[in-house]
């Protein structure tokens, strides 16, 4: 009589395990794949922005401009025109940040917000909304802008290392 129930119990156990474990594994695999794809996309976007800053020599040119301002005490302007959307990958996938580790999502969001703020300042310069009362105010502003660029470069480099470092 014990042998009668063994195949029946085995079939029920297999059905229960298959109907619960398989979807969990499929869901886990999909989230893992999406997480890896998000990391790759975000890392590529940040790396591309860093490369643009490097190729266009924004930091070096701004350093030279600030040095010139310090020497001459002038009150001139330095502008960088950004007319396209900043970080389109981040904007289109921001709702999926929860798939990343908390530290990754925090650092990515911080990088994005700091970059967005920098672009707003650059836009104020480009449109003439930012005016300076004297040369010290001008020099202080551009020194701060230079520090901001350098901080973003460091944050972006660290972020790409973080996003590329753990591909699990």
Identify low-pLDDT runs: none
Number of strands: 0
Number of domains: 1
Q: Residue-averaged pLDDT, rounded? A: 85
Q: What is the chain-wise order of helices and strands?
A: HHHHH
Helix content: over 70%
How much of the polypeptide forms β-strand, as a percent range?
under 5%
Q: Give the termini distance in whole angstroms.
A: 49 Å
Question: C-alpha Rg, in Å?
Answer: 26 Å
Number of helices: 5
Biggest sheet details: none
What structural class is derived from the secondary structure elements? mainly alpha
* Overall body shape: rod-shaped
Please sum up the structure shown.
The protein has 168 residues and is an all-alpha fold. It contains five helices and no strands.
Structural overview:
79% of the residues lie in helices and 0% in strands. It is mainly α and 168 residues long. It has one domain.
Write the layout of secondary structure elements.
Blueprint: H1 2-55, H2 58-72, H3 88-93, H4 102-127, H5 135-165
Helix pairs in contact: 1-5, 2-5, 4-5
What would the keywords be for this entry?
79% helix; rod-shaped; mainly alpha; 168 residues
